[in-house]
Amino acid sequence: MQSHDSSSYYFLQALEKSKELSDTLLQMKSLNGVSTVFANLYQFDKAVAYAQQALFLSRIKKKQTA
Fold first, then answer.
1. pLDDT in tens, 56-66
2. What is the SS3 assignment for 17-57?
3. What pLDDT, in 10s, does the model give residues 30-62?
4. pTM beyond cutoff 0.85
5. How far apart are CA 57 and CA 30, in angstroms?
6. Domain limits, the chain
7. Distances in whole angstroms, Cα of residue 2 to Cα of each of 8, 16, 34, 61
8. CB neighbours of 48 closer than 8 A, spacing ≥ 6?
9. Cβ burial, residue 22 (10 Å; 0-12/13-18/19+)
10. 3-class secondary structure, 59
11. d(CA 29, CA 11)
């Protein structure tokens, strides 16, 4: 459990920093990382919520580059 706690901590820290920097790619990676941590903890509702946020950002990013 300890490794999951530290993993989620660092992914959430990266998420906050990516928001400060307006780095959408890093936000998506951080959200996916947090999602994976929650999935490994069998907290699927939280995992899906973070994955959906990443998907939402990826769709926005795709529209911006199209």
1. 999 998 888 87
2. HHHHHCCHHHHHHHHHHHHHHHHHCCCHHHHHHHHHHHHHH
3. 999 999 999 999 999 999 999 999 999 999 988
4. yes
5. 12
6. 2-65
7. 10, 21, 15, 34
8. 35
9. exposed
10. helix
11. 9
**Residue type at position 38:** F
If one counts every other C-beta atom within 10 angstroms of the C-beta of residue 17, the result is 13
Cβ atoms within 10 Å, residue 60? 12
Give the burial class of 31: count Cβ atoms within 10 A of its Cβ; 0-12 exposed, 13-18 middle, 19 or more buried: buried
Which token pair is 33? Answer: 């990382």
pLDDT, residue 63, reads 84
Degrees to nearest 5, angle at CA 44 with 21 and 57: 30
Burial class (CB in 10 A: 0-12, 13-18, 19+), 58: middle
